[in-house]
Automatic annotation (TrEMBL):
SUPFAM superfamilies: Homocysteine S-methyltransferase. Residues 1-269 form the Hcy-binding domain. PROSITE patterns: HCY. InterPro entries: HCY_dom, HCY_dom_sf, Hcy_S-methyltransferase. It comes from the Eukaryota. This is Hcy-binding domain-containing protein. It comes from Flemingia macrophylla.
Length: 280
């Protein structure tokens, strides 16, 4: 485990609270995110809002490189993804960040390999499918990125990632990369998190990071969240202690969660930790 994550978890008694939905807060402060760059637009159009929505006491300078949810595995190859992200990863790694978070990762990528088996006749080629390591894992190794990273996937059925790929296979890819120091789930309805943690625990020994969304439905045509389709903060918080009992080490929120949600997560975990200490 990276000393960064190890030190953080040691200081917090084994469970740490991370941040909430950046885009949600940016919109609350007046940002118009109806843009192909989404919240990244604010980095150059209104950087003051980026500073404003981050807590002054936030210790670590996490940098998130985002992938858009969706099944693009048949249209985009590993090499295409690596070309797209290579320079971005280099810049972020040199920016002074403590950690790179590859989040909302929608799939694993398959590559078709040709096994000639030493035979010169191309008609005798045998094609077979193999699971190729996620492009990001390859990129971290190829560029010898010195700062740690985590991989966080999202799911819409509580078993697989959004493309339909197995979460356990995706988790295994993260487990096999020594540059990755934590693996988890983000931007996924809270009702699915319990089962997803159970699946991840079967394939990884690394800390598990969990930051679900509010459970609300997003209308892609209207480009807005459908009101009253998610859970209340109280319902969200009711899950948190169980997630940690199952093995989550870092807990926060994603889309439609707010600073109030994060404060309540902190209070719930603080109360739980106090109860544990009181029994010892």
């Amino acid at each position: 485990m990276s000393s960064l994550i190890a030190d953080l978890l040691r200081q917090t008694g084994g469970t740490a609270v991370i941040d909430g939905g950046l885009a949600t807060e940016l919109e609350r402060h007046g940002a118009d995110l109806n843009d192909p760059l989404w919240s990244a637009k604010c980095l150059f159009s209104s950087p003051h809002l980026i500073r404003q929505v981050h807590s002054p006491s936030f210790r670590f300078k996490f940098v998130h490189t985002l992938t858009a949810p969706g099944d693009y595995g048949d249209a985009i190859t590993v090499e295409t993804l690596k070309r797209f992200h290579r320079r971005r990863v280099q810049i972020l790694a040199d920016s002074g960040a403590d950690l790179l978070a590859f989040e909302t990762v929608p799939n694993k990528l398959e590559a078709e390999s040709i096994d000639l088996a030493g035979r010169p006749d191309i008609s005798q080629q045998r094609k077979e499918k193999k699971v190729d390591p996620v492009a990001y894992a390859q990129l971290l190794k190829e560029e010898d990125i010195k700062i740690p990273a985590w991989f966080s996937f999202n799911s819409k059925d509580g078993v697989n990632v959004v493309s339909g790929d197995s979460l356990m296979e995706c988790g295994s890819i993260a487990e096999s990369c020594n540059k990755v120091v934590a693996v988890g789930i983000n931007c996924t309805p809270p009702r699915f998190i319990h089962g997803l943690i159970v699946l991840l625990k079967k394939v990884t020994t690394k800390p598990i990071v969990i930051y679900p969304n509010s459970g609300e439905t997003y209308d892609a045509d209207l480009k807005e969240w459908v009101q009253n389709t998610g859970v209340t903060d109280e319902d969200f918080i009711s899950y948190v202690s169980k997630w940690c009992e199952l093995g989550a080490s870092l807990v926060g929120g994603c889309c439609r969660t707010t600073p109030a949600t994060i404060r309540k997560i902190y209070s719930a975990l603080s109360s739980s930790q106090s109860a544990i200490l009181a029994t010892k």
